[in-house]
Design goal:
The complex is a heterodimer of chains A (641) and B (395). With 641 residues, chain A is an alpha+beta fold. Chain A has four domains: 35-135, Sulfite Reductase Hemoprotein, domain 2; 182-308, Sulfite Reductase Hemoprotein, domain 1 (2-Layer Sandwich); 321-429, Sulfite Reductase Hemoprotein, domain 2; 447-621, 2-Layer Sandwich (Sulfite Reductase Hemoprotein, domain 1), CATH 3.30.413. Chain A has helices at 2-21, 35-49, 55-64, 90-103, 126-135, 168-178, 250-264, 275-282, 284-301, 304-307, 312-315, 348-361, 384-397, 421-429, 460-473, 547-568, 579-587, 598-605; strands at residues 67-70, 73-82, 87-88, 107-110, 115-122, 152-153, 193-195, 209-215, 221-227, 239-240, 245-246, 362-364, 370-375, 381-383, 403-405, 411-417, 445-446, 487-490, 504-513, 516-525, 537-543. The radius of gyration of chain A is 24 Å and the shape is globular. The model of chain A is unreliable at 1-24 and 338-345 (pLDDT under 50). The radius of gyration of chain B is 21 Å and the shape is globular. In chain B, 41% of the residues lie in helices and 9% in strands. Chain B folds into two domains: 84-230, Rhodanese-like domain (Oxidized Rhodanese, domain 1, 3-Layer(aba) Sandwich), CATH 3.40.250; 234-259 and 269-392, Rhodanese-like domain (Oxidized Rhodanese, domain 1), CATH 3.40.250. Classes of the chains: A alpha+beta (641), B alpha/beta (395).
Chain lengths: 641, 395
Amino acid sequence: MKKIIKKNYSIHKNVLVKRNSSQITKSHNPKWGMEIETKNFANKVKLYRQGKISDDDFRRYRLQHGAYGSRLNTEYSMIRIKIPGGEINPEQLEKIANLSEAFSIGSAHVSTRQNIQLHWVQLEDVSEVMRGLVEVGLTSRESCGNTVRNVMCSHFAGVCTDESYDVSPYAKAIARFFLRNPMCQNLPRKFKINFACCSKHGLASIADIGLIPVIKEDGNRGFRIYLGGGLGAASFIGHLLEDFTPEDKLLATCMATIRLFDRFGNRENLARNRMRYLVHETGWEKFQKMVIKERTVVAVTTSELTRIQYEYRKENESSLLSSIKISPISEKKLKLPVLNDDGNNTTESKHQGFKRWFNTNVVSQKQLGYYTIFITLGAGDITSNQLRFLANIIRDFSQEHTARNTPQQNIAIRYVEGKDLFNLYQKLTTIGLANPGALSIASPVGCSGTTSCNLAITNSHRLAKEIQKKLLELRYDTDEDLKSSTIKISGCPNSCGQHEIATIGFFGGASRIGTSMAPVYTMLLGGNSDEKGELGKTLIRVPAKKVIDVVLKIIELYKQEKHEIQNIEQDPKLPFNNLENWISDISKGIGNGKIKNLDDIKNLLIPVIQLATIEESPDSYQDYGNDTKFTAKTARGECAA
Amino acid sequence: MEMIQNSLQKLQEENVQLELHIFNTSRKETNKGRPCRTINFKPKEKSYNLKKQKSINKTINSSTKNIVKNTKKTKTVKARTTTTRKTDVKKSNNNKTKFHQLSITCDVDTLRTLIRKKSVRVVDVRRHDDYKKGHIPTAVSLPLATVLANDTPEGIIKILQNLGISNLMPVVIYDDTFGALAARVAWTFQYVGHTNTALLEVTFSKWKSIGLEVERKINKFSATKHSISLNNNIHADASYVENISILPKQDLQNNVEIDLHVNSNTVQSKSPDISITNPLNNKIIIDSRERLNFLTEHIPTAKNIPYTMLGTDTSILREGKELKRFMENRGISPDSEIITYCGSVGTLSGLAYYAFKLAGFNNVRLYSKSFKDWKSLGKPKQEFKEANYWDLSAE
């Protein structure tokens, strides 16, 4: 105990010394928040409670400020804190920890679009949370409602070995330009912009506007821009606008797209008012021409006053990284750093744990000697104490003094030096943040489901945690063949859990089985989120309590096929090299083993999903977290204002 | 650190239950998968210690800043209390029968002055072993468990007398559990008639970390007389609470879902202020447990102000104006009567009691036997079962 005190003390002292000696360690305040909004919100709540504002008007107002109604209980809100580009500094993490403890439930939740959500906040306290957020430069404004939602940026941007340049400042500048911008305060529906770092990371293919940075041969920067992608009841992969969009046309392209959406988007039919439907119904070629034409109009009519609202060069002024040189590296996989083997306090088992963690939670950066490490969370949940601990970890170990939250609901800490990795790992073990599996199949995504969402039918959140627990228990994170596969779960068809882009995806529903209703998940196979993107194909409906069995069965079938092929051939050249490829081929009907297509695998899975009768096994008909009969209860969704 | 741990251990031994799920959730799943709601003080919980540790470290490192801050705070506190206070201190110096009149909380500087003048009784409500390892100078030891074991007016008067506390003597109480234990003891003293009682603004850890005096001597004072004068208007029992917890029939049946089916275009009163829905207006029951415990079950009509809202890293209670704003946000007017309760023995709700006092509420009561008593009497509860909110807490 005393030892810990001393250690923490010195760490803190260190920070204090640094802070006193220079301004560098004090995080830059990005000023996304506005204090006046917090006061206005408090007043609006009072007026609403006094019956002076209608339900509809108040809901719209509330959503515009990022407070979503809680499941079947209008007294409480979920506050969705925007983390533009996913960049979050230690002071912000500490503030969120304190706000959660005071006004929420003592833990925070990392969403799949780089927001951080606080659940079950009393409506009357929302303004207090907002007040706290403003102090550290954060906002929840326009994180819900018919607005430009949080602008995402790949958490590898700036460190990715495959990227052409760092898009982070562009992402933040675009986010700043559209935040509170009159042109997008009442769109037909929400609007999502994703910046990728390369064709693999960053979900560019499933956003309204998805951008991948490219550098032309002449050295000019630009983007490949994808329009009209998105997941939901009907999902679409985005269309490439043109081969190359120069960076000076970035703003005009985004503005033009939003203007077209605002002008032509469907405002009547809630189920079809996202831009992807407009693109689909208009036809891509026509829409493409409209965008190009509108862009020209925007370019020649935009005033200087508007143009100066977009200044990406200013966004990275706070960066601490100017001193770190980028050393281009040819080999993508760097060697494991040498373990600090002093023999005294580092036991063999600790090394084993470290190696396992290192295998799935550490990625080498393009900056030689620096690593990005991942904190594995359970469906994005993190306690206030863990957040505070993490804040100090970031101060002590990250050269950029910030972290990024990821769409896989984990947290990335970048610019960690190789020599510090073991020490960092050991520190993380003291507070339950050293779980392995972040970049493996053992890190399932789960939306909030029935824990707080009005639309949810099933407890997808808990299911994701249960799967994670099982896969870690079976050490499947250590299996190289499974590493690239993903599992993503939504509690309803609306895709907050991004199930369509998972290797194995699930979305929740309710189904009559025998004489009783039961929670079920529709399973999809073979999705991915690369630049080209692939949407998973629907296979079967699986009772909630059989989902884990089905996942394990799929893995078993894969291993069987691999084993059989290896047995037949002396020097086998496997037609598939991992679970992801194997499933992908099957989903396309071109499987190389005994299982050729979706029907084949379906037939093998059907025995696994059979339920005993409700009398024999009442538990099988209940959802996770419930001991009562399952009923599908939902209320009006608040995605649209 | 060890002290926190020990005091927590002791608390558990003495079976004092608190509702601290953020720090101390022992969220057991029953075999059927529902979270068990009994939450015990769990001493080995790392996260709690870490949090405390962090705040301690913060304190150590910003000690100088805090001293400056404290001096500033003293000034505001002084301004807040009666203007005659300064002269009171002086007078008490000259004339020993005239005591300093304390406010709701006592800041560090005021306490140190009073200690120097030997005109205060400092009461340490941590476990006795912790007291022996070091305490605020001149403090006497009175573990919360002792108070709870003797929780009758006569028993408490006897305790006061044995600690050498006379009718008007200022009493300043502290703990190391964010003020909740101290609050329960302070309320108890005031209930039996010792009104000149205040909570030390900081916890013992904080006091120590600022580098203030600590002594190990076991202080004993000769017994004195204390009269009894029950302050019934700060106390509530189950039947008192029951009378104001009656929901309109329709509300109880439909629970919270009533709001969902209202025609959304008509403007309706959405006031959370039960003065509008409850004929027994202006009496508000406050549940000071944490949010998830409250959602699970609570006394009908109660509003939730979790104890976690009340303090800061540096002080057991926020400033009065901030607390007042929280209440204002909730539409609770200062002339309302407030009844606070928590899970079992009235510690968290004791802190809430003083928070309301600090926010300027004059009419506040503590339902000292709290929800444990309510449930054991089989009184009605309001539950919310439509969401799996327990599955959100990360462990």
